[in-house]
Structures are given as structure tokens and as C-alpha cells.
Amino acid sequence: MSETMIALVTGANKGIGYEIAAGLGSLGYRVGVGARDATRRETAVGKLRAGGVDAFGVPLDVTDDQSATDAAELIERLAGRLDALVNNAGISGEMDPGWVQDPTALDLEVLRTVVDTNVMGVVRVTNAMLPLLRRSASPRIVNVSSSVGSLTRQADPDIEIGPIMAAYAPSKSFLNALTVQYARQFAGTSILINAACPGLVATDFTGFQGPRTPEQGATTAIRLATLPDGGPTGSFFEDDGVVPW
């Protein structure tokens, strides 16, 4: 079994996910680039390798049970275990102009699609990877969330939290709640699991609107993926510290 630390980042072919993979790679991790699209995945792997990262492609559609199982089997063959899982893959769902999802006119199929990726996808991948994570001395799981999932911030009229997003924002609240349940289940073990908010990052996900770069957006997830033993678990972080639930 390799002594090099092994990481898997989902949705790692571009944007924040790519920069998380690059950041972990720069720390010496061997990084699995999880992505659906074969061409984009291999392009990202080539770019990471050109930058000195020990990267390998992992075909992975987080909405497909068999894909998650196959990804775990591939990592087992190539590395034998997993030290860090970063559940970064996510979608916003169909939006009205102004990045609005009106709850009074919400297409339930949009809601189902968003939850299937942003919540159920995390469960699929995490549970598929758990046997590999349990082989690690210091397993870490990071769920990439968003401050729009903070009910405290959403409910405060004095906080500017952005447009109404009746599918995307609740999916991140759901993800945060799920993170807590995993942390409770992992209590007394070496597995640390936390949620990370990257902030408003200029990527194609946001229409390249936002004050933060993908590199900046990756910082918190990288920190949580490399926490020392005894670090926090079951919490929600951004660069400035803890995000209120």
C-alpha cells in the first residue's frame, strides 16, 4: 500500500474543484480527479501533471450508484486506501433571470435534480468510499457547501445573502445537516468530516461573477482535508472561521 497520502476530489475538472486538487497535489497528495466528462477529466489530469501533481482520472457521476462503486474499486486498485475525500461536485439547478429560484413557481423536477447531485450524490460517494477511508490513519471528509445554506444568515434581513434560490440554497442546508449526522455517526473514530464555504467565486458556476478566485475558494476545503488528528468535526467553516448553521 502506498505511503503517499491519497485524495479524491469530485467535480475536479474545473473551477474550485480543480484548485482543490491542485492545492492538495502541491502538498504531496496523490489526487484522484473525479469528473463525468472524459475529455475534461483527462485535460485536467494532464494540466495537473504538467504542474507537478501526481494526478489520476476517476470517472465519476455522483448521481449514479454504479459509477460511485466503480470509482471506489478503481481507487482501491490504484492506491489501496483513501485519506481525504472532498465532495465538491454540485449544481445550482435551472435559474430564472437574476439567479432566482422562486419557491412559489418552483419546478419540482429542478428541485429533485439539485438534491440528487448536491445531497444524495454526497451520500453515494461518501458511503462508497468509506471502506477505503477506514484504511487511512487520519481520514478526512470535506463537503463543499455555501453560506447560502446558513439558515441563520438566510433568515436575517440585515445580512445580504443574495437572491432567493429555492432549490440550491436548501440543498446546501440539507448538506450541512447531513454533515452533522455523519459527524455524530463517526464520533469516537479517527474520521473528521466538515463543511466548507468557498465564498462567492468567479467561475462558470457563477457566470464568472464574484470577488474571489478559484484558488481563494479552494483554501478552506484544502485546510479541512488536511486537518491534524484531534481537529474539529461536524462544523461549517469559511476563511474567516465558523459559519452559523
Tell me what the structure shows:
The chain is built from seven helices and eight strands; from the N terminus they run E-H-E-H-E-H-E-H-E-H-H-E-H-E-E. The protein has 245 residues and is α/β, with parallel strands linked by helices. Strand 7 (236-238) and strand 8 (241-242) form a beta hairpin.
Please give a handful of descriptors for the protein shown.
245 residues; alpha/beta; 7 helices; 8 strands
Percent of residues in beta strands: 5-15%
Structural class: alpha/beta
Radius of gyration (CA) equals 17 Å
Order of helices and strands: EHEHEHEHEHHEHEE
**Number of continuous helical runs:** 7
Mean pLDDT: 94
Strand order of the largest sheet: 3-2-1-4-5-6-7-8
Shape: globular
Helical proportion, percent range: 40-55%
Our measurement of the CA-to-CA distance between the termini, rounded to an integer number of angstroms, reads 39 Å
Number of strands: 8
Show unreliable segments.
Answer: none
Outline:
Helices cover 40% and strands 15% of the residues.
Record the SSE blueprint:
Layout lengths: L5 E5 L4 H12 L3 E6 L2 H13 L3 E6 L5 H14 L5 E4 L20 H26 L6 E5 L6 H4 L13 H18 L6 E5 L17 H12 L10 E3 L2 E2 L3
Parallel strand pairs: 1-2, 1-4, 2-3, 4-5, 5-6, 6-7
Antiparallel strand pairs: 7-8
Helix pairs in contact: 1-7, 3-4, 4-6
